[in-house]
């Protein structure tokens, strides 16, 4: 689809949106968005949509008005590519080799530098907060600090200067005190390979904000790899009041292939493989002590990118996430597939497994003497099961709640708590979002908003002041009443606005 794959443009100076309808008077603050928007430089082009260079958007709500601006993230990757007028830095789906015009010594040095991948700093996935610092982020060890007011790129930060990590998620969690929790992967260069859970305190930033909040990072705990050379890929994780929920899925990163990808002439993305014959492990780690629950919880093979929410209920951990039967979603976003039209595009969809919102339930009061073959889930509002096996492990089967929902969002005041509503992009017959949906996990009913030739991005929920009900108000650039899904207002931007991935709302200072 051309709307996805054409190069986006910057709007570096704020432009005023034309408002129809009425914005809530209390809606004051800035919505930051991030996503890929530059897919070619000079005559060179990326292979994959997730390779495109980051474009940061801001929508500032103030006194009933909306102003929009956007700037490309001025990462080192961006600067090198623009200076060379071609793509010179490798991305996840596009491997780049030295200029053949360079001499043999320069080419040899470049090859040796790629024995251990030093990833791009093109942070195109999300906007995250550590302390009072805001960063464009992806899933590698580099993040780029940005100024949320001007969208200027302030500084490049390396997780490895603060904690031993090669990879980290772009989907952290925030608690009520403002602390940030995240997970990362430590590969073999940092001792025994493991998944690492860490916390950045709310007060991590200094008053002048000259020192990064990451300087106060605390490692909470770690989980050893099930397979030393093939760690699980993960895009997000769950968090309850007391626990971190980590899904170790059989969608794996082959470290040996990763280390040799450059020499074999393949992309890093090709080093991800799903083992359909393997199982999925569910780890529950106490976020206060760092100790894992000893019960071995497992389920059938699945692929997950986005968690929705997790909470504790009567000695159970309940967590909802968007799952797939296979890993073809990544394949769908190669630009060659996205540009297909008509029958060719329809045929390519035949290999696309739809996203399914599923609920898993893990009982915490598992006893070794529990009857074998018994379902240990005692909650009455779900059909999810957790069955005790002969070896003392617990086999978990989910309840499927809704098919065709991705990029999920909730009222974040209910994060880690029992909740009712999930918002997201509806994808009925295509992986490209064309509707916004609101799903009630209690009644199992849903509402939708759509408009022809409209491709909405991930919805972001902003609660009205003093709101008691979970679905009081949810704005988009289109602002919808979260109860009725009626349109309250829309802000028409007099500039090109490229499709994006994820974002963060920053309330105005009171």
From TrEMBL:
Family that this chain belongs to: Belongs to the carotenoid oxygenase family.
Residue spans crossing the bilayer: none
Gene Ontology BP annotations: carotene catabolic process; retinal metabolic process
DNA damage is among the record's keywords: no
GO molecular function, one term: metal ion binding
Cross-referenced Pfam families: RPE65
UniProt key word Lipid metabolism: no
Top-level taxon in the UniProt lineage: Eukaryota
InterPro entries assigned: Carotenoid_Oase (IPR004294)
Keywords: Iron, Metal-binding
Cofactor names: Fe(2+)
Residues the record lists as binding Fe cation: 171, 235, 306, 502
Binding note for cofactor: Binds 1 Fe(2+) ion per subunit.
Annotated protein name in UniProt: Beta,beta-carotene 15,15'-dioxygenase
């Amino acid at each position: 689809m051309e709307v996805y794959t054409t190069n986006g443009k910057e709007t570096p100076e704020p432009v005023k949106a034309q408002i129809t309808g009425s914005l809530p008077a209390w809606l004051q603050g800035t919505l930051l968005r991030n996503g890929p928007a530059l897919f070619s430089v000079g005559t060179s082009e990326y292979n994959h949509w997730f390779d495109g260079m980051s474009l940061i958007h801001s929508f500032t709500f103030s006194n009933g008005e909306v102003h929009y601006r956007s700037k490309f993230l001025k990462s080192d990757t961006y600067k090198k590519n623009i200076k060379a007028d071609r793509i010179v830095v490798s991305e996840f789906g596009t491997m780049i080799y030295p200029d053949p015009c360079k001499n043999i010594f320069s080419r040899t040095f470049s090859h040796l530098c790629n024995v251990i991948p030093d990833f791009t700093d093109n942070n195109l996935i999300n906007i995250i907060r550590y302390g009072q610092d805001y960063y464009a982020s992806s899933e590698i060890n580099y993040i780029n600090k940005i100024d949320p007011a001007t969208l200027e790129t302030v500084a490049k930060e390396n997780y490895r200067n603060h904690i031993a990590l090669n990879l980290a998620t772009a989907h952290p969690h925030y608690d009520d005190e403002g602390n940030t929790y995240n997970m990362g992967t430590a590969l073999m260069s940092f001792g025994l390979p493991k998944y690492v859970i860490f916390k950045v305190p709310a007060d991590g930033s200094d008053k002048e904000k000259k020192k990064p909040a990451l300087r106060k990072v605390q490692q909470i705990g770690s989980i050893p790899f099930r397979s030393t050379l093939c760690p699980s890929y993960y895009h997000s994780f769950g968090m309850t009041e007391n626990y971190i929920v980590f899904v170790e899925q059989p969608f794996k990163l082959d470290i040996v292939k990763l280390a040799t990808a450059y020499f074999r002439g393949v992309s890093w993305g090709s080093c991800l493989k799903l083992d359909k014959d393997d199982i999925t492990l569910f780890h529950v780690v106490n976020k206060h002590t760092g100790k894992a629950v000893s019960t071995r919880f497992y389920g059938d093979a699945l692929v997950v990118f986005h968690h929705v929410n997790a909470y504790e209920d009567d000695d159970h951990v309940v967590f909802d996430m968007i799952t797939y039967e296979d890993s073809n979603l990544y394949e769908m976003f190669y630009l060659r597939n996205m540009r297909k039209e008509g029958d060719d595009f329809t045929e390519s969809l035949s290999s696309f497994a739809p996203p399914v919102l599923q609920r898993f339930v893990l009982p915490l009061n598992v006893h070794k003497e529990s009857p074998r073959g018994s379902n240990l889930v005692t909650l009455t509002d779900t059909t999810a099961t957790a069955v005790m096996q002969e070896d003392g492990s617990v086999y978990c089967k989910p309840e499927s709640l809704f098919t065709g929902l991705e990029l999920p969002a909730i009222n974040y005041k209910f994060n880690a708590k029992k909740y009712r509503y999930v918002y997201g992009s509806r994808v009925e017959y295509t992986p490209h979002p064309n509707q916004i949906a609101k799903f009630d996990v209690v009644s199992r009913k849903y509402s939708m908003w759509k408009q022809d030739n409209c491709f909405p991005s991930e919805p972001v929920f902003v609660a009205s002041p003093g709101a008691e009900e979970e679905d009081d108000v949810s704005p988009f650039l289109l602002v919808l009443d979260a109860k009725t899904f009626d349109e309250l207002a829309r802000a028409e931007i007099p500039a090109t606005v490229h499709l994006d991935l994820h974002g963060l709302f920053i309330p105005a200072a009171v």
